[in-house]
Amino acid sequence: MRRLAAISCLGLAIAWLLLPFAATALAHEVRPAYLEIRELAPGTFSVLWKVPMRGDMKLSLDPVFSGETKASLPTARTAQGAAIETWALEAAALRGQTLTIAGLEATMTDVLAHIEYLDGSAWTQRLTPSEPSTTIPVADSAVKVAGVYLVLGVDHILFGIDHLLFVFSLLMLAQGLGPLVKTITTFTIAHSVTLALATLGLVHVPQAPVEAVIALSIVFVAAEIIRREQGYHGVAAQAPWLVAFGFGLLHGFGFAGALSETGLPTTHIPLALLFFNLGVEFGQLLFVAVVLALAAVARRFPLPLPPWGQRVPAYAIGSIAMFWTLQRLATF
Question: Which option is the CATH number for 33-141: 2.60.40, 1.10.150, 1.10.10, 1.10.357?
Answer without folding.
Answer: 2.60.40
